[in-house]
Amino acid sequence: MTIPFTRWPEEFARRYREKGYWQDRPLTHILTDHADNDAVAIIDGDRRITYRAFNQAVTNLASVLQAQGLHRGETALVQLGNVAEFYITFFALLQIGVAPVNALFS
After folding, report:
1. Among 23-27, 37-41, 57-61, 77-81, where is mean pLDDT lowest?
2. Element holding 101 (H helix, E strand)
3. Could you give all domains of the chain from N- to C-terminal order, each with its CATH number?
4. Which of 72, 47, 69 is nearest to 88 (CA)?
5. Coiled-coil intervals in this record (predicted)?
């Protein structure tokens, strides 16, 4: 199943690539590049989560989601606020090839 999306105007895409905002690499690969880093990746209230801990939480959740039957190409609705768990869930879904959709209205 193909999931439709809206393309950015080519001028935006070109400019974002030139500035390095878009790297034409999956977000999960960018996270993995920083996985051995103890710098802070997420600040959520009083909590500080390092890239290493973030990547480990993502990998653990991805394994659980796969074991529960989620498969590449599927879509998953996520209803979480702007908290660390949202980003862990978002990246875990991306890691296994599931398209995350934020179902929470702001």
Report:
1. 23-27
2. strand 99-102
3. 27-102 (3.40.50.980)
4. 47
5. none
- Whether the per-residue pLDDT at 1 is higher than 60: the answer is no
DSSP 48: E
Strand-pairing partners, residue 99, are: 75
Reduce the DSSP state of residue 16 to 3 states and report it.
helix
What is the tens place of the pLDDT at every residue in 2-56? 566 677 888 998 999 999 988 888 888 888 888 898 999 999 999 999 999 999 9
Tokens linked to 35: 């996985």
Tell which residue, 93, 79, 83, 84, has the closest CA to residue 26. 93
- Cβ pair 95, 58 in contact under 8 A: yes
Q: At what angle do helices 51-67 and 84-95 cross, to 10 degrees?
A: 60
Q: Which residues are CB-contacts of 56 (< 8 A; sequence separation ≥ 6)?
A: 35
- Hey, what are 79's tokens? 């209803």
Predicted pLDDT at 23: 86
